[in-house]
């Protein structure tokens, strides 16, 4: 229990960040909520439409639901690449005795490259004419028939914009998971090995349950980042195909100047993130209880 | 404690003064108050524009502004350019929403611009040019391109371009085809070129508007600009005969493989390179590309093979061969907020000097009189395309991206890619777009 003076000090020190949080995060959310009840093109007078924008979003806009479906697929691909890849690499790193630092650094590198550079890089990789790296590789290995304009083909564009995002942050999550693995007491693992557990059992029964709190954090981070994913999809496809809710919202606001409807979508994204986080915590808690 | 209070009050008072100063430093005039009274006090002004940094307009205006600054100490024209058009429009619309547009800004004659004009945010350019005694110097086509549907003029043109189809004679000969006489000849020509292993038409799909130009061609040839003027308001439909013909033609272009594979993710530089490297047979672009296509800088093997043709006609169409897309580029609007004697004086000086300076950069002026000085290494093609500017007919095709409301335009650009790629059928395309335009068009153009 903190003494009274200490509590006061804590409150004083917490106040500035809370103030910044309120101004930087809560205010825009409240503003968006307010704007979502209006129709506004940015220059004419705002017109109150009540829940009209929400009604349109939920019942009258097929593009929105298509974008929502795309966002879900985008999130799944990102999660598999980011969390699956991170878990796999972190586990493999635990087996290595030499060269860990080099691999860690190389794997982390994409996370520090600028988004625009990644966008240009993958535009070149996916290019069909001039032939990009991916299509060239397919030709070299005799799979030239699979070569295609990955960013123009409506069947591949969504995966093509998801992969760079997954690739980019898998190193970061690998580092977090690897650090969690490293914090497991060596005695526990040694005792388990003496009891005769194999590598899979060691992972499934000892390591993974031990890092569960860190895992939940990374899942929450990866899910919310994926639901808010915007920059790479926007840079690579510019919303031509495979539109996500975020790119659709951006286009609705800043190209179509329909700020009210775009605000309704932004409110949807906030709620969607909160629901996703709630579900993750709920599921994880149930698993622990079981 | 008392000192702290005094300090806090002083800071607040200073802040209030600064803020109130910010709010009242720029005066505003009525759109038709084109010659505001008062002393010319030199200060910095800004131009938010969407033009290439090293292009003719910025080069010329930089020189003119520097000359003006010599006699007006303290004056400076600040250029804030975003050549990428979609990004520029987003920036412009955001600044307009925040009421933070600078003294001068680029804008097309779009419905959004019309709203700004209606709101009183733009100076009446026709009145301004007449007041400056410059109105009659401008080409009619250059001014008409900038006008709103009601004939009002709120943007100053700075260019005069013609959009033609450059083609590679050797590649067409190799495929055994002639240049198309009618629009309906193009799909057949594409099929023949594809058969010969040649990319028929190179397309900058990333910018979206080049493909949208093709959508405008058939209706323009059939009925001039009447169709798009009605379509954008929901008074005509794509399911009408003219619209359906245009959509079918676009689908035919796609099924004939007219554009390079993956065209929708090809950017401007790559699209141009396909033509200049001799891989693509046709490149539909404007005279702004002449410094690349019409000079000796281009590799001789391609340079000597380049010629051009004008937009093919349709059988029994309403427009003639010399009527096609001849834009005067994005126009410059003058903000009523900040329009003072200095801005007026500078603009008068700049617009008087501009034709001579701009013409010297090898570009065609939006005014008559001062001609174009061709670059020393210009080819014969350069001169011939420049000469086309004087032969443009009475009607010029209005690009659809400047006509439709932004929501319909965005959706059209997306759906067109799907139509040409064969991802949606003609009927699906028509159903979708008629629905989108019916929902947004009438609202955007409501009086």
Automatic annotation (TrEMBL), chain A:
It is found in: Cell membrane. Its main location: membrane. Keywords: Cell membrane, Membrane, Transmembrane, Transmembrane helix, Transport. The chain crosses the membrane at residues 12-38, 72-94, 106-126, 171-188, 209-227, 259-284. It is a multi-pass membrane protein. Residues 68-280 form the ABC transmembrane type-1 domain. The keyword Cell membrane applies. Belongs to the binding-protein-dependent transport system permease family. This is Sugar ABC transporter permease.
Automatic annotation (TrEMBL), chain B:
It holds the Pfam family SBP_bac_1. SUPFAM superfamilies: Periplasmic binding protein-like II. Keywords: Signal, Transport. Belongs to the bacterial solute-binding protein 1 family. The keyword RNA-binding does not apply. This is Carbohydrate ABC transporter substrate-binding protein. Residues 1-27 form the signal peptide. The keyword Transport applies. It comes from Bifidobacterium colobi.
């Amino acid at each position: 229990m903190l003494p009274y003076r200490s509590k006061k000090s804590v409150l004083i020190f917490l106040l500035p960040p809370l103030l910044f949080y309120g101004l930087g995060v809560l205010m825009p959310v409240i503003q968006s909520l307010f704007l979502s009840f209006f129709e506004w093109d940015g220059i004419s007078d705002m017109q109150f439409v009540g829940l009209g924008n929400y009604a349109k979003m939920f019942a009258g806009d097929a593009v929105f639901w298509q974008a929502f479906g795309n966002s879900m697929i985008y999130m799944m691909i990102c999660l598999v690449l980011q969390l699956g890849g991170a878990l796999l690499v972190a586990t493999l790193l635990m087996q290595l005795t030499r060269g860990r630092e080099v691999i860690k650094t190389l794997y982390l590198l994409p996370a520090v490259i600028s988004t625009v550079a990644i966008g240009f890089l993958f535009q070149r990789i996916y290019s069909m004419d001039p032939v990009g790296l991916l299509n060239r590789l397919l030709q070299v290995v005799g799979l030239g028939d699979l070569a295609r304009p990955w960013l123009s083909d409506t069947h591949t564009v969504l995966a093509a914009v998801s992969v760079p995002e997954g690739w980019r942050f898998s190193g970061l999550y690998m580092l977090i998971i690897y650090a969690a693995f490293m914090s497991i007491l060596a005695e526990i693992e040694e005792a388990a090995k003496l009891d005769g557990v194999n590598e899979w059992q060691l992972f499934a029964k000892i390591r993974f349950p031990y890092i569960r709190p860190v895992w939940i954090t990374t899942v929450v981070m990866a899910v919310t980042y994926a639901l808010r994913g915007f920059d790479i999809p926007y840079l690579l496809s510019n919303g031509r195909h495979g539109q996500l809710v975020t790119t659709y919202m951006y286009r609705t606001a800043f190209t179509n100047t329909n700020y009210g409807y775009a605000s309704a979508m932004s409110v949807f994204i906030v709620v969607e993130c909160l629901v996703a986080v709630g579900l993750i915590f709920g599921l994880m808690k149930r698993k622990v209880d079981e | 404690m008392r000192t702290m209070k005094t300090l806090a009050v002083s800071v607040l008072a200073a802040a209030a003064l600064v803020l109130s100063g910010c709010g009242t430093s720029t005066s505003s005039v009525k759109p038709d108050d084109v010659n505001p009274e008062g002393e010319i006090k030199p200060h910095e002004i800004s131009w938010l524009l969407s033009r290439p940094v090293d292009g003719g307009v910025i080069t010329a205006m930089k020189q003119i502004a520097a000359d003006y600054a010599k006699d007006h100490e303290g004056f400076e024209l600040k250029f804030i350019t975003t050549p990428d058009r979609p990004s520029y429009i987003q920036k412009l619309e955001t600044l307009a929403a925040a009421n933070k547009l600078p003294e001068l800004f680029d804008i097309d004659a779009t419905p959004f611009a019309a709203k700004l004009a209606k709101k009183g945010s733009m100076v009446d350019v026709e009145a301004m040019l007449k007041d400056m005694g410059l109105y009659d110097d401008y080409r009619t086509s250059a001014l008409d391109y900038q006008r709103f549907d009601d004939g009002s003029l709120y943007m100053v043109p700075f260019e005069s371009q013609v959009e033609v189809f450059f083609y590679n004679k050797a590649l067409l000969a190799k495929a055994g085809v002639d240049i198309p006489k009618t629009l309906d000849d193009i799909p057949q020509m594409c099929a023949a070129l594809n058969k010969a292993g040649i990319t028929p038409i190179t397309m900058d799909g990333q910018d979206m508007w080049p493909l949208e130009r093709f959508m405008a061609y058939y209706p323009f040839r059939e009925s001039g600009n009447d169709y798009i003027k009605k379509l954008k308001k929901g008074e005509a439909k794509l399911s009408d005969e003219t619209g359906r013909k245009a959509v079918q033609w676009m689908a035919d272009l796609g099924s004939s493989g007219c554009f390079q594979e993956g065209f929708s993710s090809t950017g401007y530089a790559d699209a141009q390179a396909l033509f200049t490297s001799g891989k693509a047979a046709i490149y539909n672009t404007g005279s702004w590309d002449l410094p690349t296509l019409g000079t000796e800088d281009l590799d001789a093997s391609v340079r000597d093979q380049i010629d051009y043709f004008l937009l093919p006609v349709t059988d029994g169409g309403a427009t003639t061969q010399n009527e096609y897309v001849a834009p005067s580029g994005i126009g410059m609007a003058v903000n009523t907020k900040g329009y003072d004697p200095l801005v007026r004086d500078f603009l008068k000086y700049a617009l008087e000097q501009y034709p001579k300076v701009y013409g010297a950069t090898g570009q065609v002026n939006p005014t008559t009189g001062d001609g174009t000085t061709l670059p020393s290494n210009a080819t014969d093609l350069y001169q011939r395309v420049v000469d086309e500017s004087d032969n443009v007919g009475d009607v010029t095709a209005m690009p659809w991206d400047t006509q439709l409301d932004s929501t319909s335009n965005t959706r059209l650009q997306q759906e067109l890619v799907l139509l040409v790629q064969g991802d949606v059928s003609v009927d699906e395309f028509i159903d979708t777009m008629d629905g989108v335009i019916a929902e947004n068009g009438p609202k955007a153009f409501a009086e």
